[in-house]
Amino acid sequence: MHSKNPFKNDYNFDDLIKHHAPLKEYVFINEHGNKSIKFSNNLAVKALNTALLKAYYNISYWDIPKNNLCPPIPGRLDYLFHIADLLEKTDVKLLDIGTGANLIYPILASRQFNWQCTASEVSLDSLDNAQQIIAKNDSLKTIELRHQKFKSNILEHLIQPNDYFDVVVCNPPFFKNRTEAEQSNRRKFKNLELSEENTKNFGGLSNELWYKGGEVAFVQKMAEESILFKEQIQWFTAIVSQNENLKKIKRVINKTNPTEVRIVGMEQGNKQSRFIAWTFR
Question: Where are the domains of the chain?
């Protein structure tokens, strides 16, 4: 985990429970004698997120519908710390593609770094939830929400002629279709020895989980559209969830003739992840 990430050490669950009492229900003593939660449990992660946002960022209200993805905050913040290293500036304008109902990247970017954030989303229901989060937290009022009306587009019809952004962040849908997503979840249930009763703990709407062609096709589309906005955006970035897709994704980005492409590795415990960044500057 990034050396500046405030969540790189163990959580102080006693303190977090003081900020959000419902978290207590999910805390237990693990085999190492430490307090923890089951991170496979979406409700437990949601309670932990709420506590972290209250304790560290003074976010008094944060909630998401039960069917939406519940992102782990430390990993999302790690992405942003590496983005900060990439930009090497403080007055940053960030565009989040596919912010979801959770609005997590703009929340963390605005509260941790004081960046100016714009967030896009195709789902009106998710946008409504994100708007509720903004409306109930004065510290988030500067976040701008935009509806991407065209599901076949990512940047087109979203970025306006007078827009300028230092960076685009994106966590693309990584499955190719519903069947692939369901198969992955079944493997996850089996590996974690979860019962059918626990399957609801893995949330995610269709637009959050899958895209025709998976993350390779999504980033390819994003790269093709990035050419149109190379004077308005300094860095385009996207999380690549599957390491085996990296070569294909780098190849499709290189076809747009960027001046630089970077692959930035990230580690959260035993989990290895990465994002790819490209610029025409």
Answer: 65-279
Q: CATH for 65-279?
A: 3.40.50.150
Stated as kind and residue range, the H or E segment containing 260 is strand 260-268
What's the whole-number mean pLDDT along residues 43-52?
Answer: 96
pTM: 0.88
Torsion 30-34-39-45 (CA) sign: positive
The letter for the amino acid at 254 is: N
Say how far apart CA 222 and CA 164 lie, in whole Å: 17
CA distance 201 to 212: 24
Return the structure tokens found at 125.
């229901």
Counting Cα atoms < 13 Å in the Cβ hemisphere of 142 gives: 14
CB atoms within 10 A of CB 187: 10
Q: How many residues comprise the chain? A: 281
Three-class secondary structure of residue 226 per DSSP: helix
Give 232-269 pLDDT, tens digit per residue: 999 999 999 899 999 999 999 999 999 999 999 998 87
Q: What is the CA radius of gyration of the chain?
A: 18
* CA separation for the pair 95, 83 (Å, rounded): 12
Q: How many percent of the chain have pLDDT more than 90?
A: 77
- The span from the CA of 21 to the CA of 70, in Å, is 19
pLDDT at residue number 234:
98
Instruction: Decide the pairing of beta strands 260-268 and 271-279.
Output: antiparallel
